[in-house]
Amino acid sequence: MQSSEETTTTTAATATDSGSHPAPVATADAGHAHGEGAGAEATRAKRTLAVSDAAVEAIRAQLAKRGTPEGAIRVGIRGGGCSGFSYVIEFEDRPPRSGDLVLEFAEPGKATVRVLCDKKSIIYLGGSVLDWEKTLMYQGFKFKNPQEASRCGCGHSFTVA
Questions:
Q1: Do 80 and 39 touch, CB atoms closer than 8 A?
Q2: Which of 91, 115, 123, 135 is the most exposed, having the fewest neighbouring CB atoms within 10 Å of its CB?
Q3: For residue 142, what is the enclosing H or E element?
Q4: DSSP characters over 66-85
Q5: Which tens digit of pLDDT belongs to each residue from 63-96?
Q6: DSSP assignment of the chain, as one string?
Q7: Residue 160: strand, helix, or coil
Q8: pTM recorded for the entire structure
Q9: Alpha-carbon span 115 to 103, nearest angstrom
């Protein structure tokens, strides 16, 4: 029987070619990976998310500016907004909740960055990339979500396929 607590920890010092840290495999599923094909790997990838290098650095900088470098960022979704769901990104100072997906990005000489996501939100965020975008008109986090069917004009709410 699988544990209801699914905690994922990754230590990433280097990035992939796409500029994002790879989505780690959940430790709760590690024992079930033997003898499973690419379908099982794709299923696990849908239960996690990737974080770009730019997003990791932005999180690290914002936690340091806030004075809580040991804190974390919690990502998720809430019902509401123009299109049905809204993305949520909040500071988290408490330990992870039971069942949270916990992603850790450690680099030598720098504070470890933790990104938390509750198990209900990962259903809609699985396979996504959290990125940091900086343009002349906009600066902030942006989700690249393959499950997103449409997005409202403001870009903060979405529907799923």
A1: no
A2: 135
A3: strand 139-144
A4: HT-TT-EEEEEEEE-SSSSE
A5: 999 999 999 999 999 987 777 888 899 999 999 9
A6: ---S--------SS--TTSEEPPPPPGGGGGG-TT--HHHHHHHHTT--EEEHHHHHHHHHHHHHHT-TT-EEEEEEEE-SSSSEEEEEEEE-SPPPTT-EEEEE--TTSPPEEEEE-TTHHHHHTT-EEEEEE-SS-EEEEEE-TTEEEE-TTSSEEEE-
A7: strand
A8: 0.72
A9: 5
In one-letter notation, the amino acid at residue 104 is: E
What's the CA gap between 114 and 128, in Å, rounded? Answer: 16
Taking the C-alpha atoms of residue 142 and residue 151, their distance in angstroms, rounded to an integer, is 12
Nearest to 11 by CA among 129, 103, 117: 103
Structure tokens at 125: 């965020």
Residues constituting the chain: 161
